[in-house]
Amino acid sequence: MTELGDDPDVEALAAARREEALATNQRRLLVLAGDRDAGIDAAFDAVRGADVPDDEVTFVTAREGFRFHRVEPKRAASLLGTTRTLVVLDAHEDFSANALGRVAGAVDGGGLLVLLTPSLDDWPTRRDAFDERLAVPPFSVGDVTGRFRGRLVSTLRDHPGVALVDLDSGTVERDGAYRQGISFDAAPPRVPREKDRRFPRRAYEDCLTADQSDALAALEALTEPGSAVVVEADRGRGKSSAAGLAAGSLAAEGADVVVTAPGKRNAAEVFARAERLLSELGALRGGDADDFDIAAERGGRVRYAPPTEAGAAAADADALVVDEAAALPVRLLESFLAAPAVAFCTTVRGYEGAGRGFAVRFRDRLDDADREVTDARLDDPIRYAAGDPVESWTFRALLLDARPPVDQLVADATPESVSYRALSPDDLLADEHLLREAFGLLVLAHYRTEPDDLARLLDAPNLTLRALTHEGRVVSVALLAREGGLDADTRRHMYDGGRIRGNMLPDVFTSQLRDEAAGVPVGYRVMRIATHHAVRSSGLGSRLLSEVRDEFAGDADYLGVGFGATPELLSFWRDNDYGTVHLSTTRNDTSGEYSALMTHPLSPAGRDLRDRHARWFLGRVGDVLGDALSDLDADVARAALAAVEVGADTDADTDTESAFSPDLSEYEWRVVVGASYGPGLYTTAPGAFRRLGLAHLTNPERASLTPREERLLVRKVLQTRPWDAVADELDFHSTAGAMRALGDAYEPLVDEYGTDAAREERERFR
Hints:
By secondary structure, the protein is α/β, with parallel strands linked by helices. It is 40% helix and 17% strand. It contains 29 helices and 22 strands.
């Protein structure tokens, strides 16, 4: 440890690290720990010592009054895709793992990342606005732990290339000197011979590395219909720039190129590169400026479409470019295959999504599609040299490179060979391999995993983790969130429209479905569940849910789950005894899916909650399917309705069977029988057909209908689609054929549910 005296010479330390960074084209990290005002003053010294012009400096802080460019911590995402020479992150207020990752990625080679922190010994015990967001009711901020920050501090104290100044004591804990990194320059870009390339020479000359020019060459496949290109890279390798050069090259030749990404911000680099190339080629058409709709000569165009609209937009275009593909759900990725040619560009390890998850969840479907697939990978960093210690530190501190066990270690796992265990945050911190394996599986479980999720896992008082292990290796994990158990004031606040963090199911039940008592029972919501891809579909997920059910049976009233509804997921949860209680009436902006809520009761209170919401769901779903859910996928509707479970109604003299009773009048039965067995018409009493259709779809085992007949019930009877549209979608030769099929479908329903009067009416037509 080096003494600095009363006035630490941060300026000299910053100058030394900046010189080293420039010499290696890497970055260095300078931590200024202690009093906040002293830290800000020291940061100014660091800027001066590093000899960085003011316009190349950014302060990320809630404080105001700086001469430098300033960004609020909650706006740190605005730095993604930008390049700065020196960035100061003030971690004293509203610090988050997301902000740290985004800020670090903006620092250029030869630059410095300066981190202002409280005393490192005290930092884990301090609480700020981020901790307050982790303190979801009924927990308080005092229940939030500081494990994430404690782990972060330990990495700061031992990772290469990190200089650490204790401002309170006036000492340099670490000088951060590091010259052992790989500092060789990446191979220069390659320009294919004219006869071997389809894109302009200028596009290749704009590449910065050989990796990038190779990726651009792979993207030339987009000139051929039926092609697909997969470009993978760690963050900062230039994949978005390569995609932009490809889009610009295509547009220069008159092609219509659609670009999509989780948000417009994510696609900014693609459009910037495309526009620049078109300008250099003299192919940019003038007119009204739009950063996300670029017109080119010869009719070419590069335009943005949101993910939920991109598949349809690209079907009439020449090519589709998907940036940050890993941050989008598989359902949307599959819809993009409607494009004549498509490129999937994905970050392997970064803050926009998990590339490994993309590979596991979607790549097999792409390989099965009728596509000629070309792969490219970019390894060479563009903004800094390989071996950069700031990059390796962020990967380590934020677990950006967390992975599940290798396939060979778990390939023999079966429901009988695994062990069930709770993985407490302390367990995870004590075993880095365990933490990486568990978090690596959680990354694969969801298309959007952020660094903040690591902080939540370690510090949030409402979260708990359960796992199955095979010979000590994690093969399946479930992340659970405690919900409910809310006091009367909190429940009233929700009922009156107030939002309560971390209580998704009680919030929906209370604010949307008007059940103020729904916040009383205690539940555990399965936020994420994941099984190692090498042993999927082998029963491990169900085994894990069974163990969770047994463990929490005495401590909670119900288990619940909410997810973007697909037939496969609905069937999985139904098979594990979860019942549908709600379908959202709006689609998720990113996934384009409607959400399903399902519960499994563990106590009488949980059963009462499930039963009343299942009944309310049955009471309204027929009307909702004809209105807000008129475009719900028919197979999603079938699976959601089949998963409805209702126990005996204790408030009425009815049994379980009555929940599915169509309850038709004698007249309505005559109409239904007449339309199925005789010459009657469905349009005479559609409400009767709706109730009878719901009775079947909520208990499909009672009568035998084909999947197409059930889809016919959903599309025509429940969603009231026009006959011609129904006939076309379900491949009937004519609307008359669809009408006859509907009558035929109701015959077994009459046989199963019909009253004596209905059966008597039926005999008239036999």
